[in-house]
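Researcher: Please translate sequence to structure tokens.
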Amino acid sequence: MIRRALLGLVIAIGCMGLWQWLTWPDVAALKRTAPTTSAFIKAHELQSGGSAEHVWIPYARISNALKQAVLVSEDIGFFGHRGFEVEEIKIAVRETVEKGKPLRGASTITQQVAKNLWLSPSRNPLRKVKEVLLTRELERHLDKRRILELYLNFAQFGPDVFGAEAAARRYFGVSAAYLSERQAAELAAGLSRPRSWNPGSDSKSYRKRVELVRTRMREAQWLLKEV
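Model: Translation complete:
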């Protein structure tokens, strides 16, 4: 009986491993081709029963102000780490242990690209393992600007708006190439809560976040050389 149970477990694990191998994303292919959709877009469309706004735009045609705003808002150390911000992870764990706070993500932009393109919002252990492996592959196969390009094209900027170009058109009636410093800050400020924090919101907390992003942008002018 026990042998049968163990054999069944081994077979189940083997089948799951084979499925993961067969469906594993070809990360290196992103050097040459741009994805047309993402796991988060598909999930949104399935849940809402409608379509999401999404338009791909090349890196060179995205406002440098938006690149800078996103970095100071989400991952200011992006160009200096290799996919994981160790100090942020330590702080998140310490806050959980010492203060009893829920464990926050402390995710870098590369981690968010892995999650947005291929995974789900779930925090189950298997998903986190896949996120770590995909993050390492992204950093190994792609340069930083390509990773940032992917992030800017698939990040959620509103309830049904994905990517910088769709967001710039929806909220400001311009291409992402022509976003001003303030407009860029308004888009970046809502990334942590895109369904409620976006340029269409009158939330006081969101407006405070916009001003914080603008302050950080003024203090991090060096980022403009990196982007």
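Researcher: Any highlights?
Model: The two ends are 61 Å apart (CA to CA).
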